[in-house]
Batch of 2 targets.
Target 1
Amino acid sequence: MGGLRKLRRKVLGKHQYGYEVGPLRADFGPSGHKLSAAIIKFAQPFIDLVGYDHFGYAIDLAILCWNIAILPQDKQEQKRQYIVKEMSKRFPPEGAEEIETWSKKLIERKNKLFARDRRIVTDYTVQDEGDSQHLIVLSTLASSS
């Protein structure tokens, strides 16, 4: 039996431990977009500012701010200050000021444009594909509390 057929049977049928395993599928969330597309749309003003040479850094900050915006209101500022402090270590002082400013703008943008989207980014990868960048996102749904 071919390797692909074995893999398909294993993935779509019973797993070796006895539970059903279904195929992976994209979750389009309340916005009707895959989360990777929503993150890029959300981060676009910051990406435009820093340019595609720094796409990875822009996505790092955007995803951190996306997740912070899902936290309860009383925890957001503390977490935002922490990520600003940690990310600022990688940049000169003027870069740190930009991170401070943009972290606030991005959290505000998430709350304004994507407030109903409660998906939390649990992992992500930015792939350099020559003349373009590709974002792959793994997420879970935040609890409603």
Note: Confidence is low (pLDDT under 50) at residues 11-24.
Target 2
Amino acid sequence: MTELIRSLGISERSPRRRCQDALGYGAKTLERILRLQRFLRIARSHATLTAAALEAGYGDAPHLVRDSRQLSGLSPRELVWQHAR
């Protein structure tokens, strides 16, 4: 992201402000949402949620659990089950 910002010749805060204005939340929250969505897609084809979490970019289970609960109100297992319906 830093390289893109430099190549465009804009400040580092500019994309953050634009994200906040357009979506109502910041770039970091968007990154968390996209990573959780990536986890849900990957979880369909993996035997374990741990393997899906690692492939989606989570460093460990507590980060996945935190994102899942904060963004959806559900545990990762509950979210995968609900998403599969």
Note: The mean pLDDT is 90.
